[in-house]
């Protein structure tokens, strides 16, 4: 019986330590769920068909001229994939595909409860944003990208939840 009390006490202490250290972290409660993983593709039709053949629900291609891309969303049980294809002459995706002929992972998108607070926190931590203010993203919500050089080489999109 004494060992059970000790185990319970130890368990409570561990929970307190974990909770305290997580809650005191400057990014605690800032980052939400993974919204999507974006994949650049040189052939949007083939990429869409690939996921349809696997049984996924795949949207139609939607032009996003303000971002220089066509987007297709692949619905997954717990998230989405965003297929990206160049739109127009100044598409940032074309530059990516010039370096990665077969395409590949372009960015991840993480939801935030308050995009302006998230931008301020990132700035305070020395994480640069690509742009001074959010833009309207493919879901019609405010988004901002974080510089990959400040994010372990990963382009991160923050999206207002």
TrEMBL record:
GO molecular function annotation: metal ion binding; methylmalonyl-CoA epimerase activity
UniProt-listed GO biological process terms: L-methylmalonyl-CoA metabolic process
Every VOC domain range: 33-161
E.C. designation(s): 5.1.99.1
Metal-binding recorded as keyword: yes
Keyword Metal-binding (UniProt): yes
Keywords from the UniProt entry: Cobalt, Isomerase, Metal-binding
Domain of life the protein comes from: Eukaryota
InterPro entries membership: Glyas_Bleomycin-R_OHBP_Dase (IPR029068), MeMalonyl-CoA_epimerase (IPR017515), MMCE/EMCE_epimerase (IPR051785), VOC_core (IPR037523)
Signal peptide: none
Catalytic reaction equation(s): (R)-methylmalonyl-CoA = (S)-methylmalonyl-CoA
Class of the enzyme per the UniProt entry, highest EC level: isomerase
GO CC annotations on file: mitochondrion
PANTHER family, A to Z: METHYLMALONYL-COA EPIMERASE, METHYLMALONYL-COA EPIMERASE, MITOCHONDRIAL
NCBIfam families cross-referenced by the UniProt entry: metmalonyl_epim
Function: Methylmalonyl-CoA epimerase involved in propionyl-CoA metabolism.
Family: Belongs to the methylmalonyl-CoA epimerase family.
Entry protein name: Methylmalonyl-CoA epimerase, mitochondrial
């Amino acid at each position: 019986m004494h060992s059970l009390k000790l185990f319970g006490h130890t368990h409570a202490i561990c929970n307190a330590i974990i909770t305290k250290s997580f809650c005191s972290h400057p990014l605690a409660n800032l980052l939400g769920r993974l919204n999507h993983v974006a994949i650049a593709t040189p052939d949007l039709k083939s990429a869409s068909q690939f996921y349809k053949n696997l049984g996924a629900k795949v949207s139609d291609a939607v032009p996003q001229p303000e971002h220089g891309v066509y987007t297709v969303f692949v619905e997954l049980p717990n998230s989405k994939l965003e297929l990206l294809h160049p739109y127009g002459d100044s598409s940032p995706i074309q530059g990516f595909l010039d370096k990665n002929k077969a395409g590949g992972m372009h960015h991840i998108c993480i939801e935030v409860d308050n995009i302006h607070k998230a931008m301020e926190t990132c700035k305070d931590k020395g994480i640069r944003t690509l742009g001074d203010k959010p833009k309207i993203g493919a879901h019609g919500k405010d988004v901002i990208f974080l510089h990959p050089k400040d994010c372990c080489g990963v382009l991160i999109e923050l999206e207002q939840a």
